[in-house]
Amino acid sequence: MELLWILIKILIVFAVVMFHVMYATYFERKVIGHMQVRMGPMRVGPHGILQPIADGLKLFFKEDIIPTVADRKVFYAAPLICLISALSAVAVVPFFEGFAIANINIGILYIFAMSSLASYGVVLAGWSSNSKYSFLGGLRSSAQVISYEVAMGLSLVGVMMLSGSLNLTDIVHAQMKSPFKIYLIPQIIGFFVFVIAMFAETNRTPFDLPEAESELVAGYCTEYSGMRFALFFMAEYIGMIVMSCLAVVCFLGGWSGPFDVPGIPFFWFLIKVYFFIFVYYWVRATLPRYRYDQLMALGWKVLIPLALLNIVLTGIIKSMFG
Amino acid sequence: MPENKAESKEIVREEVAYEPYTIAMGPQHPATHGVLKLDLELDGETILNCKPTVGFLHRGVEKLAENLSYAQTLPLTDRLDYIASMANNVAYSIAVEKLLGIEVPMRAKYIRTIVMEMARLTGHLLWLATHALDIGAMTVFLYCFRERENLLDMFEEICGARLTTSYTCVGGVRQDVTGHFLEALHAFTDDFPSKIAEYETLIDKNRIWLKRTQGVGIVSAKDAVSLGLTGPTLRGSGVDYDVRKHMPYDAYPYVDFEVPIGSKGDVYDRYRCRMEEMHQSNSIIRQCIEALPTGPIRSPDAPDIVMPYGEQKRVAADATFASGVIKLMKDNEHYIDGDVYVSAEVPKGELGFYFVSDGRGVPYRMHIRSPSYIHIGALPFLCKGQMVADVIAIIGSVDVVLGECDR
Predict the structure, then answer these.
(1) Contact assignment for A38 to B142 by CB distance below 8 Å
(2) B145 touches A at CB < 8 Å
(3) What distance in Å separates the CA atoms of residue B163 and residue B199, rounded to the nearest whole number?
């Protein structure tokens, strides 16, 4: 019975996440479109509301092209690694009180592990395509993920110290009991580092070097077509959603809000996640792209020292105020 | 036997010791602005060597011109720098006029100056759009196209075409501008400085933009001159050279404008130069509209199969070729033996036409000194030691268009 309940939960979360991924692409095009004095998709359905379905159908029926010199097995596996690890990370996210598929006590570490695995998919895609642009994209991705993973991990240490737990549900509970109700205020440096690392981790502008279209054509997914390309795309959007969830849980108090909305326990959680997703789009419409060495310098020379400083400060505050 | 094997292994290890990673950037690449191909040799992401290959868009304009009359070649010049074809039309016309010794009426001179500066704006707007897009600032791209669209609509109003304009002709311009056009353009110049400010809010002080452009692709004034750079690419290095100022043509002697100069010669300085140039072009257009004289728009002795205009129109209704009102190219007495080189300042730099004439009515040889071709020649110098991402920024900052390069 327990197992059945878990399966039902998985199905629900899977369906909801996939639906959000579909419409995340639509909202991205709409939001960026309006920021760029144009309309975005308008043709499929009223205001282009059915555009994601049309896109999905189109990608589904595209020819699946595999380069003759590609390493076939790895080439097949790479997008799946990306997608599966991105989806698995959703399992530990508590959407509202008592609702997480797996309420494990190392939730943060698990999400880190899964997002690192996703970067394996990117590296392998770049390697197995046997194309020079893909290879450079894969190299960039591995370097980027390694350096920003460190900053990201360190930025959350402050949250762990304050809450005394790695379990995401416990972190939210600890925040509700804290004086400010959210960790954003005591952990403002950590939040700053986390948000920047979050952009780098999900390969979004201004850190979208692995797929920088003006330099590397499409980076690691240059040689992918049809549904395999779509898998990378979905993985990227799920990654964005997971990272937004993590930011909401660790810094913005998860599902708690200024007042309770009866009947919709996940109301505040959704609002906060949407805020982060919107920031993703906003930044994409505004900022240029970093250069590879500048990205490394920012990660190692600015973010990691800041994250370490945050740990020290958090330790002092914790020892003084208990 | 085992010793031999060990030896051969060692030899192999020495052979594969080091080999640069080569990558062919282009001819199909999103950021090489057309069909430019760059063979890059990389060490990691650092450029060891860069070899441009051109000629993918060669159409033989220079050779075609040898079999066409001077008037017939004019539409071909639209296809040189197709982003700012008006400027090519003007450059070609003044070159032929110099060769044939034709004096252009004042009104035509002013109109040409207006369209030339409009072309400079369209060229610079497209440059800014693509340059920003290459560096990753996507929104600037669409903002620039919004204003470029207005300018192209105005081109359409005066000559019926947006890109391949063929608006000027030898001895003047093809048709007069309308009052509505002048009003619309004047309104545009009122608005345009605020639009430039809008682009600048997005990138001008942006830290990422500054990091990507400052100190990248530096070329000193001395190197810039010896590489033959012209236009904003040269002025970014601090060399004060502008054909409009130093060898004025059309109405440029009568308008007041400044030539913006950079200092360091990096991508950022070239960007600043072009941004300032847009302000200057805007002011030149305003001055020309306000000082636009009345009078004929075409020289009466223009050797062209012209549509007669003004008073000649009535005469021409009954005229034949033999009456001499309609002048044909090939039997015109203007043609001289000799050669002439005339250049004009187009958005990309100095566009020069070199004619060798033997008096037949068609050029014996026409050579186009296209700035893009020479700027592409400078790319190996500029790219050496930079990173892959910088190559994109540098290509954007020297502003090449392959239609002009390959001719």
Answers:
(1) yes
(2) no
(3) 24
Q: How far is CA B264 from CA A17, B212, B396, in A?
A: 51, 15, 17
DSSP H helices, B80-105, are 85-100
Give the pTM. 0.84
Contact B136 A288 (CB under 8 A): yes
CA-to-CA distance for A139 and A134, rounded, in angstroms? Answer: 9
C-beta of residue B30 within 8 angstroms of C-beta of residue A219:
no
**A250 neighbors A155 (Cβ within 8 angstroms):** no
CA dist., res. B58 & res. B54, Å (int): 9
SS3 content of chain B, % helix, strand, coil (to 5): 50, 15, 35
List pLDDT tens digits, range A2-48. Answer: 888 888 888 888 888 888 888 888 888 899 888 888 888 888 888 88
Complex prediction ipTM? 0.81
B396, B134 contact by CB (below 8 A): yes
- Residue B138 to residue A37, Cβ atoms within 8 A: no
Task: State how far the alpha carbon of B8 is from the alpha carbons of A19, B2, B11, B18, B260, in Å.
Answer: 60, 10, 5, 18, 64
- Interface check A318 vs B, CB under 8 A: no
Contacts of A248 (CB under 8 A, 6+ apart): A254, A269, A272, A273, A276
Between residues 19 and 48 of chain B, which touch chain A (CB distance below 8 Å)? 21, 23, 29-31, 45
Question: Encoding tokens for residue B278?
Answer: 């847009």
- Chain B hits for A289, CB-CB cut-off 8 Å, are 135-136, 208, 212, 389
Q: What is the pLDDT of residues A63-120, one digit of tens each?
A: 888 888 888 888 888 889 988 998 888 888 888 777 777 788 888 889 888 888 888 8
B243 touches chain A (CB under 8 A): no
Residue with tokens 């893009």: B372
The predicted structure's pLDDT at residue B333: 53
Alpha helices in B101-178 (DSSP H): 106-135, 138-159
What CA–CA distance (Å, rounded) separates A322 from B6? 67
